[in-house]
From TrEMBL:
InterPro entries: 2Fe-2S_ferredoxin-like_sf (IPR036010), 2Fe-2S_ferredoxin-type (IPR001041), Beta-grasp_dom_sf (IPR012675), Corrinoid_activation_enz (IPR052911), Raco-like_middle (IPR041414), Raco-like_middle_sf (IPR042259), RACo_C (IPR027980), RACo_linker (IPR040506). Residues 665-686 are annotated as: Disordered. The lineage of its organism: Bacteria, Pseudomonadati, Pseudomonadota, Alphaproteobacteria, Rhodobacterales. Residues 665-675 have a biased composition (Gly residues). Residues 5-109 form the 2Fe-2S ferredoxin-type domain. This is ASKHA domain-containing protein. It holds the Pfam family RACo_C_ter. It comes from the Bacteria. It comes from Sulfitobacter profundi.
Length: 686
């Protein structure tokens, strides 16, 4: 094995060993990492900025020493003096590899920008925001009746609008007197109406009648992406929606990797808190610019996030979430100020964090419950928020159960040999010809299929760069439908499958999707290890759902709702062929889009919904998969494609999956679970 340093790039997950002294930009190019550069490595353009991570990364099996990269050189010093480098950033063309290192490529350094698919879903929402505008006429000061301007403003609010005991922060006092006099004692006041923990409070003040409005943010803080919707609090209109990659990815793609990083590194939790707050500031600046809104007009915000992100946003070490009994610092809703979280919006803006349901079922799952309302459904509804940590709800008017399942990042293209996150050029749709068994595909940014006229010209600007999550799901499902992969997950040989796209790859076989090497592009394949990664992810997802079904005492559900930005792009048929979700009529499998973001918007625009979701969360029964013995049994069964024991009658009526077995080694470990598909005996429920 080579003793050269190991270089790992995030968020792509690509890695390789390089001799000491190799420039980071060179390593990135050789691995096909999406790192920009237009100046030929002369340190002029700054496009190749990277953020190295230091400390122990247990997920990657490396400890990064402080001297893993070369010291700053004269080129970097000069660039920093003239134009400035963000703290911790290096120029990839100047920094050289000296030891094992984990290097994050920030979004602005990527040629193909990440597509953050968390748009605002169209939804009717009752408008009752926590901040409203009030026009008042204030009594002028009188030497015979001395009182402060604030006191007379409070009196006007009480008499004219029945707003009692309104308070004000120092910055309001600092601006109030000239505003009152400019408006001839007639002013418009933005007031946060308060809640059970806080009195009503003046947020802003304008002379005369203010014809503008105030705004709020609904924020979905995910482990992979941070998405926000900027909303007009008077009309409910979404003014702008935007998203960025969560910069914490460089500390680990999945949540437990980040918990591990905080355990292994003394300042790890604080480092991740700083990173996510910086990412938040970037996003808020971006969305305010897109919406043409001054940041100090953003006076309210609602956050939804999983428990680990919840703790790291708040500056709480997630150590306890890394071990049983997975205790939260608090599971209740929180009411804070923007300045508590270093947010670059109005300094007195209020921040509401939805309650968490359990140690690994967070406020994002609560937001999904608020959006989809399973507790109000007559049908038995299974809601699956697909992500690196899938949150699952099952319920109806009778009761609602919830659990989480660690699917990992494979569904987002990570840990897949040709995988990548959603960006222009990534394969997102796949079909395999039943006769030739050759794949055709669509890429993000182009409406044509790869075998249609004009495709090559249409993708010339982006290229064909890899496979994103929805693409790999369809790819593996199509390979199973057309007999290229057997039920245990083994790719057959070219002779066994009748496909010239299959080729020997070491001790196993791989499938060629696209070969762009003649034009300097990548060779995109699906390997048996890729199949295994998808099997593990989908088995975790299905097992969580099946465990809730056990607890409910049922074998089928009435409806399946796929939530989350990724869930919106999953083909129901292909998801069922994989065995990601239980057998159900395809017309009953629907997408809710970014349901967590919708729940956040509901809580932002209707304060009554906050009390509603707090009551709903208290009534949800939480199931902890880590201590449930049947979870592992379901996991083993669900590793087969679609499942080793579940019959899937509805799916079988729609798709005839080939009865093939490619493990001819007489009991070898050719696929998931190490057994032939369909021969596992059903165990009786205990």
């Amino acid at each position: 094995m080579s003793s050269d340093p190991l270089v790992i790039f995030t968020p792509s997950g690509k890695r390789g060993r390089f001799p000491k002294g190799t420039p980071v930009l060179t390593a990135a190019r050789q691995l096909g990492v999406d790192l920009d550069s237009v100046c030929g490595g002369r340190g002029i353009c700054s496009k190749c900025q990277v953020s190295p991570g230091y400390g122990q990364f247990s997920k990657h099996g490396v400890t990064v020493a402080p001297d893993a990269l070369s010291d700053w050189n004269a080129v970097e010093e000069r660039y920093d003096e003239k134009r400035g480098l963000k703290e911790g950033r290096r120029l990839g063309c100047q920094a050289t590899v000296q030891g094992d290192v984990v290097i994050d490529v920030p979004p602005e350094s990527q040629v193909h920008k990440q597509v953050v698919r968390k748009r605002a879903e169209a939804r009717e929402i009752v408008l009752n925001p926590s901040v409203k505008l009030f026009y008042v006429e204030v009594t002028e000061p009188d030497m015979h009746e001395p009182s402060g301007d604030l006191e007379r403003l409070r009196t006007a609010l009480a008499e004219q609008w029945e707003l009692e005991k309104v308070t004000a922060d120092l910055h309001i006092l600092q601006m109030m007197q000239p505003v009152l006099r400019k408006g001839a004692w007639k002013v418009t006041v933005a007031v946060h109406l308060g809640d059970q923990e806080n009195a009503a409070r003046i947020m802003n003040i304008w002379p005369g009648y203010y014809e503008g409005t105030v705004y709020g943010l609904a924020v979905d803080l995910g482990s992979t992406t941070i998405a926000a919707h900027l909303c007009d609090l008077q009309t409910g209109e979404v003014m702008a929606s935007s998203g960025v990659m969560n910069p914490q990815i460089r500390f680990g793609e999945d949540l437990m990797s980040r918990v591990s990083y905080s355990m292994m590194n003394p300042d790890g939790a604080q480092e991740m808190t700083r990173a996510v707050r910086e990412g938040m500031s970037t996003l808020f600046t971006q969305i305010a610019t897109e919406g043409n809104v001054a940041p100090d007009l953003i006076v309210d915000a609602v956050f939804v996030c999983n428990p680990v992100m919840h703790h790291l946003l708040l500056g709480i070490d997630p150590f306890e979430l890394g071990q049983a009994p997975f205790a939260l610092a608090t599971s209740g809703a929180l009411r804070l100020r923007a300045e508590d979280l270093d947010l670059n919006i109005h300094p007195s803006a209020r921040v509401y964090l939805l309650p968490c349901i359990a140690g690994h079922v967070g406020a994002d799952a609560a937001a999904v419950a608020l959006s989809e309302a399973p507790e109000k459904s007559n049908d038995l509804m299974l809601v699956v928020d697909v992500g690196t940590n899938a949150e699952i709800l099952l319920g109806n008017k009778e009761k609602v159960l919830a659990c989480s399942s660690p699917t990992g990042p494979a569904f987002e293209g990570a840990q897949i040999s040709s995988g990548q996150r959603a960006a222009p050029g990534a394969i997102e749709r796949v079909e395999i010809d039943p006769e030739t068994k050759v794949a055709r595909f669509k890429v993000i940014g182009c409406d044509l299929w790869s075998d249609e006229e004009g495709f090559e010209e249409a993708v010339a600007s982006t290229g064909i760069t890899g496979i994103c999550g929805s693409g790999i799901i369809e790819m593996v499902a199509e390979m199973r439908i057309h007999g290229i992969v057997d039920a245990p997950g083994l790719i057959g040989s070219a002779e066994q499958t009748g496909s010239a796209s299959v080729f020997a790859d070491g001790r196993t076989n791989s499938y060629l999707v696209y070969d762009g090497t003649e034009k300097g592009g990548p060779k995109i394949t699906v390997t048996n290890r890729d199949i295994r990664e998808i099997q593990m992810a989908k088995a975790a997802l299905y097992s969580g759902a099946r465990l809730l079904m056990d607890k409910f005492g049922i074998d089928k559900v009435d409806r399946v709702v796929l939530a989350g930005a990724f869930g919106a792009h999953i083909s129901p048929k292909h998801a069922m062929v994989l065995g990601m979700i239980p057998d159900a009529p395809l017309e009953k499998v629907t997408s809710a889009g970014n349901a967590a973001g919708t729940g956040a918007r509901i809580a932002l625009l209707n304060t009554d919904a906050r009390a509603e979701i707090e009551a709903t969360v208290r009534a949800i029964h939480k199931i902890e998969t880590a201590v449930e013995p049947r979870f592992q049994e379901h996991f083993v069964n669900a590793s087969a494609i679609p499942n080793a024991v579940e019959p899937f009658p509805i799916l079988n009526s729609l798709v005839a999956l080939p009865d093939v077995t490619f493990n001819t080694g007489g009991g070898g470990t050719g696929g998931a679970g190490g057994e032939r598909g369909g021969r596992r005996r059903r165990r009786k429920a205990t």
